[in-house]
Amino acid sequence: MYEPYPVPELAREHKKFRYSSLWTFAKQDLRLLAFLLIIGGCIGLGIGYFWICIFAAFSIFFALQLRSLYLVNEWISNRPYDVPPNLDGIWGALLFNVYRAQRQERIVQAEMVGLIDRAQSSLVALAEAVVLIDESHQIEWWNPAAEKLLGIQAADRGRNILTLLRQPSFIEYFNNIDQAPDGLKMKSTGFDEHYVQVKMTRFGGESRLLVAYDVTRMHNLEQMRKDFVDNISHELRTPLTVLSGYIETFTDQEDLNPRWKRAFDQMQSQTRRMNALVNDLLLLSRLENDKKIAKNQIIDMPSLMNQLYDDAHAYNVDYGHELNLDIDSHCDLIGSDTELASAFSNLITNAIKYTPKGGTVTIGWHDDSEQGYFTVEDTGIGIDPKHLPRLTERFYRVDSDRSRQTGGTGLGLAIVKHVLMQHQAHLEIESKENRGSIFKVVFPKERLYHVS
Ligand code: ADP
Predict the structure, then answer these.
(1) Could you tell me which residue ranges the Histidine kinase domain spans (predicted)?
(2) In which band, very low, low, confident or very high, does the pLDDT at 27 lie, cut at 50, 70 and 90?
């Protein structure tokens, strides 16, 4: 921590200089010289050695000036922060001006140091961890919270942050901070069973400010929510299977009273919806929890596209749309075939569901050697742009009634989003109300496998 220099008060003796001009001080020297010359002249005339006494008067004046010069030099060299020696004449004025300029500078410096101290002590008091990292990724400064949450110790000053926080997810975030504006949630390296949200900002070129805060409570709540949904979905599965089994048996009976037939048909369609909901919830929770699902299979895209196209035909029976398949890429995909097939098929069934009868749905696979594009284009009801940012949220529906009528669970696009996240892909949606939509899945180059 910086020690500010003491700022001594201006010497009282110097106050007389404050408003005087340089001529005032020069006059003091001239007066002294005149005084010495008169005295020297009188003595010289008296004893008959006029010029010798005048010379002696000049010498005394010169010696006094040399003494002042010596005192000035001594002050500047040995004790520049003390009050300067009290000198008359031009030397006194010079000293005073140097002293005043220096004092002003020390006041500014003291203010700056005070400001730095205040900033530092507020950072020290923060519950959030703050770490300053220099251009060469070395730890420059940190606060006590960083010791607790990130396990940084005194010996780590100057150490590369990537040798301290070595989790692959952190290294990836460190190298691409612009791509994760919300930062990264990771296990605390200093505090067992705790989680921290880490956020980094660049400043002054390549230096970085890292801020981390404890999100263990939020993490635990999130985990509780996931476990709850997972458990309840599992628990609902068995009773639902039993119910739908019996309902199917009753519905299939030929001698069923028409009044009951309608009721059983409705029960059957509702149990199917519930089944779909439970299956989607289980799939979502598996996607969230299980990060190790195989994602490096080479997926034969022409074959997958044809499979999806055939399934679309089966689903399209009630809608009678014109279905098109458009493949102009020689690339395959690297990923998990079951997950991607389920995401693609969600997009296709949506396009069919949300297009009034007799429309057109086109499924496409393209690439521009930089990225791969799976597209589903429809001539359907479209989506008002204001809904687009929230469309992939769970249970977000533009029109709940229509979604229910079509048997939608409200989870389809949330599943798509999760599958794509696991493949470093993203979804782009273009849509015009009553004109149709294009859902485009964009895969990065690393996910493309060039078929020779
Ligand atoms: P749902 O099971 O309700 O279809 P999704 O998550 O698949 O749930 O879709 C969310 C909402 O997005 C739907 O309710 C629908 O309003 C809208 N949507 C999805 N795809 C399309 C599409 N191709 N055309 C128009 N609206 C769509």
Answers:
(1) 231-447
(2) confident
**Res 7 pLDDT > 60:** no
List every span in the chain annotated with CATH 3.30.565.10.
297-450
Percent of the chain with pLDDT over 70: 94
What is the spatial distance between Cα 376 and Cα 437, in angstroms, rounded to a whole number?
8
Nearest CA residue ID for atom 14, ligand 1: 397
Do residues 184 and 170 make contact, with C-beta atoms less than 8 angstroms apart?
Answer: yes
Q: Is the pTM of this model over 0.85?
A: no
Residue keyed to tokens 């949606």: 429
| Residue in 277, 349, 354 to alter for ligand 1 test, most ligand atoms within 8 A of Cβ | 354
Q: What is the CATH number of domain 126-214?
A: 3.30.450.20
Residue ranges of the chain that CATH labels 1.10.287.130:
224-289
Structure tokens of 155?
Answer: 């010996």
Q: Could you tell me which CATH class the domain 224-289 is placed in?
A: mainly alpha
Domain 297-450: assigned CATH number: 3.30.565.10
Determine which residue's CA is closest to atom 18 belonging to ligand 1: 350
The mean per-residue pLDDT over the stretch 385-404 comes to 86
Residues with CB under 6 A from ligand 1: 346, 350-351, 354, 378, 380-383, 391, 396-399, 403, 408-414, 437
